Amino acid sequence: MPEIRNYTVNFGPQHPAAHGVLRLVLEMDGEVVQRADPHIGLLHRATEKLAESRTYLQSLPYMDRLDYISMMCSEHAYVMAIEKLAGIEVPIRAQYIRVMFDEITRILNHLFGVATLGLDLGAMTVFLYGFREREDLLDCYEAVSGARMHAAYYRPGGVYRDLPERMPQYEAQYSRNARALAEMNANRQGSLLDFIEDFTRRFPKCVDDYETLLTDNRIWKQRTVGIGVVSPERALARGFTGPMLRGSGVAWDLRKKQPYEVYDKLDFDVAVGANGDTYDRYLVRVAEMRQSNRIIKQCVDWLRANPGPVIVDNHKVAPPSREQMKSNMEELIHHFKLFTEGMHVPEGEAYAGVEGPKGEFGVYFISDGANKPYRMKLRSPAFTHLSAMDEMARGHMLADAVAIISTLDIVFGEIDR
Amino acid sequence: MTPRLRKLFDSLQQAGLAPVERLGELTIEVTPAAYLATCLKLRDGADLRFEQAIDLCGVDYSTYGGQRVPAGGRFAVVLHLLSVSHNWRLRVRCVIADAEVPVLPSLVEVWPNLNWFEREAFDLFGIVFEGHPDLRRILTDYGFTGHPFRKDFPISGHVEMRYDPEQRRVVYQPVTIEPREITPRVVREPGYGED
To answer: Does B7 reach chain A within 8 Å, measured CB to CB?
Structure first.
C-alpha cells in the first residue's frame, strides 16, 4: 500500500477569495484542512510608527487607510482617544453626525461583507445588488468630505464641516438622455439629509431582496450552516468582538454596554445569533443593517430640527473659520500654530474603543505632552479574528475555508496596519 | 469615578493590586515575576472576571520626554483587558528591567488570542515571551533583521529593495534616502501659552 501523506497548499497571497493579501499555508489531508497557518504582514506599512513622527492631525487620514471598507469608524476611535486625553467636549450636533456616519459606515461594511461572502460562495447576484446600494452611501461620503472613501471627515473636537445643503447631482453626458438624467437625479434634488432619508426609506426593501436571494436558499444554507462553528466560551477566549461574538450568542455591543457619543439616546436592538456558525453570523449582519437604518433615520430627524456648531470653538484644537483667520491677527496666529506645530496633547495615556462594523476597533495613545503621540497602538478586530482561523478551519473542506475567511470579514489594511 | 469603576477599584485593592485611576481608566503595574500569576487572578477571580484580552502591545520608553516615566526599565508590555460579565476594563503594565534581552512569560495559556499579539510585540520590539508555542515574526518580511518599532530604529529603515537588471534579481542595499523630520517634536514646559 502506498504511503499517504499530507500535502501543503499555498492559498494566496494573490487569490480573489483571500480578501486581500493573505497567504494561507494549508496542510491538507485529501480535501480536509489539517492545519491553517495564515501569513500576514504583506501590507504592513507601520502606521503606528509613522504616527510617532507626525502631528495628531497629520496621522488622521492614515485611519481611513486601515480598514478601507469602514473608514469613518477607525477615524472615530482615533479622535475619541485624542478627545479623552485632551478633555475636549464635542458639540452635540457633531456627535449626531458622527453616529449617523458610523451607521452609514456599518451598512457599507456589512453590504460588502454579505455581498462578498455571496460572491465567494457563488452567489453573484447579491454581490451586484449590494454594490448598487454601496454606491449611494459612498456618494454621502463624497458629499460631506469630497472623497468617496478616504474621507478624513472626523476631527478632534467635532467634524470638519456641517452637512451640505445641496446634494451633488449627476451631470449630462453623451450616453445619457435628458429623461435618464432626470431619473438619476430624482432623489438628489434636496440636501444631503433629504438624500439619506430617501435612502432609509428604500433600504429595508433592498435588504428584503438580499434575504430573498440568500436566507432560505438551500444551496446557501448547505454552504454556511454548521461551517466554522465557534462556541460562546471559545469566542470570548479568542477575543472575538462585534458580529463574530454576537453570532455565537453573546449579547455584547459597546453601543449598548459602554455607550459613547449619543448612542444611549437612540432606539435600536442588538442582533444575537444562536449557533455561532457562518449562517448565524450572516443573519446577525443582515439584522444589523436594518438596525443601522433605524438609527440613521433617528439621526436625520434630530439633525433636521437642531442646527448648531459641529466643531469646538477652542482654537488650540480646531482651526478658526477662514473669514476670521483672514481678518483677525489672533486667529491667524492660531491657524499658523495649529497647522505647523500642531496641537499639544497633555501627558498621559488613553484607550478609546468603538463598536466598529467588524468588532471593537480601539486606539491606545501614550502621550508625553508633545505635539506627536509617543506611542500609538491600533487594536484591530480582524487581527484577532484571523488568528482564530486555524481553530475554525480545522477539519473543514478546502471550499469551506473560503467561507470561513469570508465570514471573518477581514480587511488587510487593518490587520497589517 | 463611576460606581462601577469604584467597585472594580475596590476589588483590585482587595486582590492586593494597586490600581491608579486616570481619565476614567484603571491601570495596574505588575512586576515580571508577578505577571503570570496576576493575570491568572484577573481572569479567574470571581469579582474580577476578565474573560477577554482586548490588546497587548510593547512600548519602548527610551526617548520618553514627559514627567511620568515608568520606573525600572526601557521596555514595557501593556495589556488591555475587558470583562464581558461585569462590563469593565483594565490596563495592566509590566515594565521589563533588562533592556538587552527583554523576557516575559507568555500568556497564551491564559488568553489564547494573545498568541498573535505576543508575536507582534516580539517582531516589532524584540520582547521574548517564554513558553510561547510559536514565536515567529508576524508583520515584517521574511528574513527581516532588527525590531522596527524600537525608538533607535530609523523610520526609513536600514535597507531598501530594488530590482537589479544586471543580476536579474531583487537585491537589498543600504537606504539611499536622507532621514528628515518635517515637523519637529516639541514638548512644551508646563503652563506654556496660558495667560
So the answer is: no
Q: What is the enclosing helix (H) or strand (E) of A328?
A: none
Distance CA A311, CA A146 (A): 18
Q: Sign of torsion, CA A377 A379 A382 A386? A: positive
Compute the nearest-CA separation of B165 from chain A (Å): 24
CB contact under 8 A, B140 and A44: yes
Among the listed residues B109, B3, B90, the one whose alpha carbon sits nearest the alpha carbon of residue B48: B90
Instruction: Give the per-residue pLDDT at A280.
Output: 92
Interhelix angle A124-145/A192-214, nearest 10 degrees: 170
Which residue is closest to B110 within chain A, CA to CA? A237
pLDDT at B194: 67
pLDDT tens readout for residues B98-150: 888 889 999 998 999 899 999 999 999 999 999 999 888 999 888 888 899 99
Enumerate the residues of chain A whose CB falls inside 8 A of the CB of residue B66. 347, 367-369, 374
**Measured between alpha carbons, how far is A283 from A289 in angstroms, rounded to an integer?**
10
State whether A40 and B54 contact (CB < 8 Å).
no
**DSSP-assigned letters across all residues of A57-94:** TTTHHHHHTTSTTSHHHHHHHHHHHHHHHHTPPPPHHH
Question: Between chains, do B155 and A50 touch, taking CB under 8 Å as contact?
Answer: yes
Phi, psi at A91, each rounded to 5°:
-60, 150
Distance CA A79, CA A85 (A): 10
ipTM of predicted assembly, 2 dp = 0.89
Cβ–Cβ below 8 Å for B113 and A384: yes
pLDDT for position B21: 86
* Contacts B80 to A, Cβ<8 Å: 351, 362, 364, 379
Taking the Cβ of residue A48 and every Cβ of chain B, the question of whether any pair is shorter than 8 Å is answered with yes
pTM (two decimals): 0.91
CB contact under 8 A, B66 and A340: no
- The answer to whether the beta carbons of residues A285 and A243 sit under 8 Å apart is yes
Assess A341–B contact: CB distance below 8 Å, yes or no: yes
Give the other-Cβ count within 10 Å of A84's Cβ.
Answer: 21
Strand partners, B172: B161
Tens digit of pLDDT for each residue in A304-332? Answer: 998 989 999 888 888 988 898 899 999 99
- The pLDDT of residue A154 is 92
Q: How far is A91 from chain B (nearest CA, A)?
A: 20
CA angle A310, A315, A317 (to 5 degrees): 75
Number of residues in chain A: 417
Total CB pairs under 8 A between chain A and B:
122
B residues 61-100 near A, CB within 8 Å? 64-68, 78, 80, 84, 87, 89, 91
List Cα–Cα distances, A66 to A24, A61, A213, A383, B59, in angstroms. Answer: 21, 9, 31, 12, 21
Q: How far is CA B103 from the centre of its chain?
A: 13
List the single residue in A48, A250, A384 with the smallest CB-CB distance to B84. A250
